[in-house]
Structures are given as structure tokens and as C-alpha cells.
Amino acid sequence: MADDRREAGRAMRRKLMGEAFAAKLDKQVYDDPMMEKFAAYTQEAVFGTLWTRPGLDLKTRALIVVISDTAQGRTPELELHLRFARNQGWTEDELSEAILHLAGYIGAPLVREALLTAKQVFAEMRAESA
Fold first, then answer.
1. pLDDT averaged over the chain?
2. For helices 75-87 and 92-101, what crossing angle results, to 10°?
């Protein structure tokens, strides 16, 4: 059963990130034995269990993690999750507006950092698709 969840998680992760970016991340980060253990866990527990649950569509789940990362100042995760959100149909304008909306609730410094991160990620994604 865990193997089934991990395989479902691998497929979900590739769907969210895109094949090319998932392969790049695997090569750069998850080829290390220690990080492979982390990858196994997240593929099973996060992508294979949480992301495959019924009740919310992937687009909504992607926005939730962008908001969570922004609120916590988790820039490396925000970089990944902005990709998820763009790949699930959120536009650059919608995502930047969602992040900007948080300024009154979490403060301008966190929002500024998130918008700078979004600017960078969106530029990278545009360059990758060109």
C-alpha cells in the first residue's frame, strides 16, 4: 500500500511541477542518499496522500500552499509552490494579487519578499517555455 501511495505521489509531483522541472530537481537535490529518504517520505505522505485527497481541486490546493508559504516566509518552498500554482492554471496576476492581499494580515515585509520571489519564478518559467 505504501508503494502504491508513493507511486501515486510521484505521479502527482510530476503533474504539479511539470516533468522537466521534476527531473531537474531530482538530479540536483534528491540524488543524495539523505535527501532520497526525504523524497520517499514526501512522495508517499504529502503528494501520495494529501494532494490526492478528494474535496478540493488541485488549483485550490496549489493556492493554499502559496498562501501558507507566504505567511510563513518560506521562500524556497514558495518557489516550488508558485510553479505548482502556475501549472494548475493560476495566472501571474492572480497569484501576485493573492499575495498582495495578505499585506494587511501578515505584513508588508513578508509580502514584499514573496512578490520578489514570484517575480523571479515567473521570469524563470517564461524563459523555460520560450
1. 95
2. 140
